[in-house]
Every structure is written in structure tokens, then in C-alpha cells.
Design a protein that fits this description.
24% helix, 3 helices, 40% strand, alpha+beta, five-stranded antiparallel sheet, 195 residues, four-stranded antiparallel sheet
Length: 195
């Protein structure tokens, strides 16, 4: 682990959590895909989330400075639902490295992501140069693999109602994600965004 002035740095990211029903559907999907996709290191279902901003390593004080902005952003973003469908791989061309499942988010969630990006930059993180591509990472290949043929997939809708500042601790059996701070999105009103 990297250290700065004797202080251990924390690897962190900001994400929206998924509901238990969605995680059960993800477990079923991944079980069905295991025999079709070789050499893939699967993400543990409890570790799947919608990342809004990967932060990397930072001092705890820097992460703490993000909390007020994240709390305010969550309070201003009503809970929504999003459609989960469509398997794909990153990168978009060439050999595959990451298997993902698409998630179509409503405009309010896109605004929440932009607020998280601005908060990260204001706290001293480098701006993210890649455009935001909402997805759920299911697994990673250890070595670049031929692009697989993927079945059509539609898991229906999921609730997006909890924003989390996570700590990520790499381990032999995959990273372990521990909430540093959790922010509930308020219940949605009568007017809903259309995904």
C-alpha cells in the first residue's frame, strides 16, 4: 500500500448500490455464463455496483472532504429505477478484457454522476477523461481474450436508492468493498424520469 507522510492511503470509489433481488438475478446469470466463458475471473455478486466515480488512492482526510458534497447530491437525487440489459465487453474493439452488463439510467442519475465527478476534481483528483458509460462489471479476463458471442440478456429493472463512498481492498479472491459513508436517496415523487 502506498503511504504519504506515514499515512496509509485508501483506495476508494463512489457507487450506487443494487437491491437484493437484482443481486439474486445476477447470481443466476453468472452461473449460466460460467460454462460459456473461459478464463474469466468473476466478480462476487455482493461486490457488483454501478460505479459513478473511481477515485483511486487518497488520504482519509481527502475522502472525508467529499462527504458533505456527496450527502447533498444524494439528497437532491430522488431514488429511481433503471433497466439492466445487454452484455458487452471492454475495450470496444480488439480482444476482450472486461465482461459487463448494461444499465440504462435516467437523467437524474446522470446528473448525480456529474456532481460526483465535480466533487472529485474539487477535492484534488484528476478529471476523468473517459465518458461515463453506465455498466455493471461481471468479470475480468486475466489475459486479453477473443471476443465471445454473448446471449441477449434482460434482467428487468433495479432500484437505485443508495449512494455509497466505498473503500476497496484488493485480495487474493477479489477486492472487498467496505462502505465508508452511505447516503440514502430520497423516495421519488409523482414525477419520474424516463430512462
Amino acid at each position: 500500500m502506498t503511504e504519504e507522510a506515514g499515512e496509509k492511503l485508501i483506495r476508494a470509489f463512489v457507487a450506487l448500490d443494487l437491491d437484493d433481488s437484482t443481486r439474486a438475478h445476477l447470481m443466476d446469470l453468472m452461473a449460466g455464463l460460467r460454462s460459456q466463458l473461459n478464463g474469466l475471473r468473476w466478480v462476487r455478486p455482493e461486490g457488483i455496483h454501478l460505479t459513478l466515480r473511481f477515485l483511486g488512492y487518497a488520504r482519509r482526510s481527502v475522502l472525508d472532504s467529499l462527504v458533505p458534497t456527496l450527502r447533498m447530491a444524494a439528497a437532491e437525487c430522488p431514488a429511481r429505477t433503471a433497466d439492466i440489459r445487454g452484455l458487452g465487453t471492454f475495450p470496444e474493439r480488439g480482444r476482450a478484457r472486461v465482461l459487463w452488463l448494461g444499465i440504462q439510467v435516467p437523467p437524474s442519475i446522470l446528473r448525480l454522476q456529474q456532481t460526483c465527478e465535480r466533487a472529485a476534481v474539487a477535492a484534488g483528483f484528476e478529471p476523468e477523461t473517459r465518458p461515463f458509460a453506465p455498466h455493471l462489471t461481471l468479470g475480468r479476463w486475466s489475459q486479453p481474450a477473443p471476443r465471445p458471442t454473448l446471449p441477449p440478456t434482460d434482467l428487468g429493472r433495479t432500484s437505485l436508492d443508495t449512494l455509497v463512498l466505498y473503500r476497496s481492498q484488493p485480495g487474493a479472491k477479489g477486492s472487498v468493498y467496505t462502505p465508508i459513508e452511505t447516503f440514502a436517496l430520497p423516495p421519488s415523487g409523482a414525477a419520474a424520469d424516463v430512462p
